[in-house]
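#onboarding

Welcome to the new folks! Below is a worked example of what a typical request in this channel looks like: someone posts a single protein sequence, and someone else replies with the predicted structure as tokens. Don't worry about understanding the tokens yet, we'll cover that in week two.

Example request:
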Amino acid sequence: MKNLFCLLLLVAGSFTLTAQDADAEADAPKEGWTRGGTFTLLFNQSAFDNWLAGGQNNIAGNVGINYDLNYAKGDWSWDNKLIVSYGLTKIEDSDLQKTDDRLEINSLAGRKASGLWYYSAFFNFKTQMDSAFQTDENGNEFKTTHFFSPAYFQFGPGMMWKKSDNLKVNFAPATAKVIMVHDEFTDPTI
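Example response:
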């Protein structure tokens, strides 16, 4: 029994040791375009019948896309990311409600300055795809937002420290931020 345990420990340890080998070619940055991403589809349902501890029947779903499109050649680096997510839930006797609504585009371009430092310029756009509603104290429902209202734009120059595609920090002290909102939500006469 003791010998069997030692053999199993040795075999398990050897798997761990071989898993630590790093491929130098895989870590080297690739020139040209690289792309990749994930698509997420989530579904959830909770049902309660004669349950004394409480809870509400509900059904929910979310869909999401997270996609990267990056370019690197020589001293230049350009990283782009698209994030889209949308979710709905229906709780027992209430109406369908939005739980997630996001459309975001990020772009970060850089030219190598020295070492791991790059001169950079970034752009960020954020909005939502669907209208949002609130209910006042009298039970009246009113629209608070819709597509492209609000929309957020941020852009500016800076310096980026980039160790790899997964580890980078951008410093942009001269950043501009523009927020766009439809008159429907800001003009009290409408």
